[in-house]
Amino acid sequence: MTRKQLYIVFMFAFSLAVSAQQKQVQTSIDKTKNKIGAQFNLVLKTTVDTTATVVFPGQKSFGKLEVIRNYVVDTVKKDSRYELVKKYGLTQFDSGKYTIPRLQILINKKPFFSDSLKVEVTNIKVDTIRQKMYDIKDIVKADEPSGNWWIYLLILLAIAGIGVLIYKLIKKNQNKKGELEIFKTPIEKATTLLQQLEKKELWQKGEIKNYYSELTDIARNYIEEAIKIPAMESTTSELIAGLRIAAVKKNMSLTKETVENLERVLMQADLVKFAKEKPLDFEIAEDRKKIEKSIVTLDDSIPEISEDEAFLNELQKQRLLKKQKTKRIVITIGTVVFLLFATIMFFIVTKGFDYVKDNIIGHPTKELLESEWVTSTYGDPGISVETPKVLTRLDIKKNMAKEVANTLNAMSSFGYGSLQGGFYMALTTMRLKQQGDFDLKSGLTQGVRSLGGQNLVFNQEDFQTKDGAQGLKGFGTMDMFNPVLKNSSKVYYEMLVFKEDGGLQQITIIYQVGDTYGEQIAKRFVNSVEFKKATP
After folding, report:
1. Does the pLDDT at position 455 exceed 50?
2. Is residue 171 in some structural domain?
């Protein structure tokens, strides 16, 4: 085979390889031209072995087109191979011509690329002359689904259960407070609780374990409060050892018999609680007498404290009461916060976040829309508009270039809100020193640009007020930077410009994209514009 023939064969094989790689991924799109916000459907298709691994791109945008839907891969078996179809929903909110770049697909970790495609996004033309316009219909309430009622019931029961538990905890703390107020001394508290224990007749009813638990708790609580050793948390041996040490330190006249009797009852209680021993009735009665005698003997053996010590004890008691009061306040506040949070979460699950935001948390533009609107006349020549709040006078002339200000004979500006705050409405009237043919289109364009937004989408159409005045309307979206929060938000704007009665007039309203209440305010505000005759 000659060198020329080898070259031809090589080139043919190379072209087949390139062709095979290019055809490994097929690329298609349902539309190459679409309206703003409409969806393009991009489809990537490849055929592979059943053992092959394929990874499709997962970006949130392809070039300048946003991925709004990422469909699940559709798998179709063809003989011994699989055809994998991946679909993406793309859109763009700015008009223009865009390119979907080549996208990388990994097949068995080897990169393959889709074809790049060109698409065009066009503005939506609104013809308000030929096409008849209708009022927006009232919102029709949809039937609420009833199949998930049990979920709402479980949420309510959970909230109720937690509320009952918190109530019991508060009640328990209140009872402890009552004990501190009723019993002035530890011995008075202990003897009273022993009497109350006997009235319960627990051991007579067979509840021997509960009886010994309460009996020893009364003794331990007394020792902890009166002698100041950690009796409630100590074992029996630790408690007796601590009691003997405290008796020496506090000069208590404590007999050996008293300590031994107390130790025997505590050990008997341990056997009942942990070894399930059942003492006889006379033994139970005897243990009760030993506990009462031990407590009284211990109290008698405690030496009288000085006035300074009594003051310190009272101070310590007051601190304890204050601490417990603070704890109750914290628990109460926590309960209220939890119940409020649980209620909000319940309404979010059942009604949706928008309902909670509008009716519980509060929505500024919703409050404006539902407030009492006022109709006022502003500027000269006067413009009558209906607004949720009275517009206040703005001093914008100081920020105006001197050469522009020199062309004005008079100017008045009124507004509410702020450009960066997400809601803004303003009205300006001007009279020029020299009357001439003012270009409304140029004035509208300059007025919109003066708002200071980025990524501006501009649309224009004729506008007529209810009293027949003719003007131009500019509308669209822009990104408005907030210097306080240091972030940008997309807002919708409408600007009206007129030249009536020898003057120039400009009306502006801005609200955040997606704010349905702001949209309703804008519609009512713009539709209320009416010109008054100029003053002579």
Report:
1. yes
2. no
285 C-beta neighbours (distance < 10 Å), count: 13
Together in a domain, 196 and 115: no
Tokens of 241: 């050892």
Q: Please tell me the least confidently modeled range out of 167-181, 229-243, 278-292, 407-421.
A: 167-181
**Beta 408-418 vs 423-432: how paired, if at all?**
antiparallel
Reading the block at residue 309, the tokens are 């010590």
The pTM of this model reads 0.40
Q: Are 90 and 71 in contact (CB under 8 A)?
A: no
The total number of structural domains in the chain stands at: 3
Task: Give CA–CA dist 388/390, Å, rounded.
Answer: 7
CA atoms within 13 A of residue 315's CA, in its CB half-sphere:
6
Mapped to the 3 state alphabet, what secondary structure does 44-97 carry?
EEEEEECCCCEECCCCCEECCEEEEEECCCEEEEECCEEEEEEEEEEECCCCEE
CB atoms within 10 A of CB 304: 6
Structure tokens of 356?
A: 């909670």
| Neighbour tally for 478: CB within 10 Å | 22
Is the domain of 377 the same as that of 515? yes
| 3-state DSSP assignment of residue 97 | strand
CA dihedral angle for residue 327, residue 312, residue 297, residue 242, rounded to 10 degrees? 70
Can you read off the two tokens belonging to residue 346?
A: 């319940």
Cβ pair 461, 131 in contact under 8 A:
no
Could you tell me the residue range of the domain that residue 104 belongs to? 3-122
Reference 502, options 379, 410, 381; nearest CA is 381
224 contact partners, CB below 8 Å, separation of at least 6: 230, 231, 232
On whether both 525 and 381 belong to a single domain, the answer is yes
Cis bond before residue 536 (omega within 30° of 0)? no
Whether residue 250 is found in the same domain as residue 373: no
Class of residue 130 by CB neighbours under 10 A (exposed 0-12, middle 13-18, buried 19+): exposed
Judge whether residue 141 has pLDDT over 70: no
